[in-house]
Design brief:
Helix content: 40-55%
Strand content: 5-15%
Structural class: alpha/beta
Distance between the termini: 38 Å
Mean pLDDT: 85
Shape: globular
Number of strands: 11
Protein name: O-fucosyltransferase family protein
GO molecular function: glycosyltransferase activity
Subcellular location: Membrane
InterPro entries: FucosylTrfase_pln, GDP-Fuc_O-FucTrfase
Membrane topology: Single-pass type II membrane protein
Strand order of the largest sheet: 5-4-3-7-6
Length: 504
């Protein structure tokens, strides 16, 4: 499919747009037919062709044109029926015939950390594509907890991003001067799109605003598109943006590959996304294993950030329900129970672990070969990326993709996006640790109610189908926050599974 702002040569002329309600192919045949008449009139005057000869020739063209229109209409109708089937819950018009009229410009401000922004950007690409709007290269979050001033082009290869999607959606680095002047003279209309929306919301609520104001600004991009109930074409567009268009800058890619190369030379490695940094614990209110001073410090931090809405948190109850990240001690027990080779390299993909070496002692005892990018590289290698947490996270992302095993201890954005990416690359081993099951088993083991063999067997049984193998994405109608996220398991972009979707 090629966007219709590109000229299409017809008898020496060009077409830049099409008549509303008429497909581009029908329009092309109409233009060819009309141009043929003009050329024949010229030929008739110069060659003195008989009137009967010309009429006969024109009738032949008319018959052929009618046949082509019938065939084309049949194909379009069939395609529309297919689209109606996959989006029967949506009353949105079909935008999948390849026709293009630029309906306006979409500016977006991504929010959150690297992987939350990454998923949101992919959603915005899909929305822009099917609303037929021009997407301006997204602005990255510079004001949240991470306080990273990196621009889009500091993390992602912006030229590759634009070029790889050029046959699907128009993307510009900056707003054109005409539109810039317009919003400078008036104002920029901004709105946060509703969370977990289907395409009907964007067709019925957002598109009219874009057409009205010409330029629309989204103030948030996180989880603004539903996981399920979305046309397959939209889902595949999300995948194309994520797995083909979003590529890190050459410096990040090169250093990430260097880390992988160093690890590979030493043997197999497991990437442990040990989400046990201070901000995670303060935000979640999870304090298992922390002393009184640490609990007070974490609580004070939580109250210091007004946009962290939940303040009073029962850590014990939250942990038992599986909503806390596993502690380093719990993680060590879980990996040992799964018979992970103790000699394997364990690469820690995380920031500073809260509690330092005191909390890492059990994990280091179980798996002595613990490494981080800071221990594998020279300080000079990392110097360009220091004070840029998102660029440092990008390095961990590359290593996580290439690891023999990926094991996140919490279901955050990095865990979700990396797991889905590893599925896309061939269902690479990803251990989805069942936190609710594990804390229950660990507590029983510590109380002496389970022997080590019983504990280990229960852990293995509970994780038999949680190793990254093909599964249907879990749907929970009406509860999008609790169901499996699209980027966890982008099944529309993976080899089909014969079983029916899982629903609760």
């Amino acid at each position: 499919m090629h966007l219709q702002w590109r000229p299409v040569a017809l008898f020496g002329g060009s077409i830049y747009s099409h008549t509303p309600g008429q497909s581009p192919k029908n329009q092309q045949w109409h233009h060819r037919y009309m141009r043929a008449i003009v050329h024949l009139a010229v030929c008739m005057s110069k060659l003195y062709l008989s009137f009967l000869t010309v009429i006969t020739f024109l009738l032949c063209i008319k018959i052929f044109k009618t046949y082509v229109l019938i065939v084309n209409t049949h194909v379009v109708d069939h395609h529309q029926q297919q689209h109606h089937h996959i989006s029967s819950s949506s009353s949105s018009p079909s935008h999948f015939q390849g026709d293009y009229v630029n309906n306006g410009f979409l500016m977006v401000s991504s929010n959150g950390g690297l992987n939350q922004m990454r998923a949101g950007i992919c959603d915005m690409v899909a929305i822009a594509r099917f609303l037929n709007v021009t997407l301006i290269v997204p602005e990255l979050d510079k004001t949240s907890f991470w306080n990273d001033r990196s621009q889009f082009e500091d993390i992602f290869d912006v030229d590759h991003f634009i070029a790889s999607l050029s046959d699907e959606v128009r993307i510009l680095k900056v707003l054109p001067q005409k539109q810039r002047r317009r919003i400078e003279m008036a104002s920029l209309y901004s709105m946060p799109p509703a969370s977990w929306s289907n395409m009907t919301f964007y067709y019925n609520r957002v598109l009219p605003q874009i057409k009205k104001y010409e330029v629309l600004h989204f103030t948030k991009t996180d989880t603004r598109l539903a996981n399920n109930g979305i046309p397959v074409e939209v889902q595949k567009m999300r995948c194309k943006a994520n797995y083909e268009a979003l590529r890190f800058t050459p410096p990040i890619e090169e250093l990430g590959k260097k880390i992988v190369r160093i690890l590979r030379e030493r043997g197999p490695f497991l990437v442990l996304h040990l989400r046990y940094e201070m901000d995670m614990l303060a935000f979640s209110g999870c304090t298992e294993g922390c002393d009184d001073k640490e609990i007070e410090e974490l609580t004070n931090m939580r109250y210091a950030y007004p946009w962290w809405k939940e303040k009073v948190i029962n850590s014990t109850q939250k942990r038992k329900s599986g909503k806390c990240p596993l502690t380093p001690e719990e993680t060590a027990l879980a990996l040992r129970a799964l018979d992970i080779d103790p000699s394997i390299q364990v690469y820690i993909a995380a920031g500073d672990i809260y509690g330092g070496e005191r909390r890492m002692a059990s994990l280091r005892l179980a798996f002595p070969h613990i490494v981080k990018k800071e221990t594998l590289l020279e300080a000079s290698d990392l110097e360009p990326f220091r004070n840029h947490s998102n660029q440092m996270a990008a390095l961990d992302y590359i290593v996580s993709l290439e690891s023999d095993i990926f094991a996140p201890t919490y279901g955050g954005n990095m865990a979700r996006v990396v797991e889905g990416h590893r599925r896309y690359l061939g269902f690479r081993t990803t251990i989805r640790l069942d936190r609710m099951l594990l804390v229950n088993l660990i507590d029983q083991y510590k109380k002496g109610r389970l022997s080590w063999d019983e504990f280990s067997q229960a852990v293995k049984t509970g994780h038999a189908d949680r190793m990254g193998s093909p599964t249907q994405r879990l749907e929970i109608p009406g509860k999008p926050k609790e169901e499996e996220y699209f980027y966890n398991n982008p099944q529309e972009c993976l080899p089909p599974i014969s079983t029916k979707p899982k629903r609760l």
